[in-house]
Amino acid sequence: MKNRITNTLFFIMLIILSAVFLAPILIVVVNSFKSKFSITTEPFVLPNVTNFEGFANYKTGISTTGFPVSFGWSLFITVFSVAAIIVFTSMTAWYIVRVKTLFTNILYYLLIFSMIVPFQMVMFTMSKTANILRLDNPIGIIVIYLGFGAGLAVFMFSGFIKSVPKGVEEAATVDGCGALGVFWKIVFPILKPTTITVAILNTMWIWNDYLLPYLVIGKDYKTIPVAVQYLKGGYGSVDMGAMMALLVLSIIPVVIFYLSCQKYIIKGVAAGAVKG
Question: Left if phi > 0, otherwise alpha if psi is -120 to 50, otherwise beta: which for 235?
């Protein structure tokens, strides 16, 4: 009886927490179909005959900000940044775990240390360095994202690789595989849970990031978060209807990606943290 009561209370608590986390998203979706004046005065009222705008906000937002172009830049930067993070950090983690030297130990702890350095401490120096090195473009920002995302990714991959038996790699070496062959044919497929977890975490971060694209590539290559800011008019006025519509369009891809891969998140985080 006590267990049943405990489970019921726990279930109710989870429902309340789910409602708290989902409420902001539902409010954004509902308000994207209302007039901008109604959003300001009645943000929690459902669309009705007097405030319903249909898809007018979506049309305004897309035409005003050039949303398709911004979507393309966000997709390009996110896909290639995440791919670069996965490829380079997984190989780095494998090298750090399997080759025990003073250099690999220092490299590992430097990467871990980079996780605790606030972005605000380095953003001005970073933006100046990016300008000097000609990294202030969609391709250059991929290198910057690789640098900022390497710490957590190496930490997670290293923890998982420590649980991979060396005998599997030694058997492949005996069969004639070189170092790259062992990694890509043996080690990397085993890293699938952690790889998907790293991909999800970095996709949500890069896709929704505003500050780094704004500082590095600015308005020349507007990503979606930067484009949304251009809905602000003079004297601080904002077209809330169009902004809500663009927010809905921007979260749909990452929500779909997250839901399709979310079953690997807990498994990958646990595997990467057990021996990290």
Answer: left
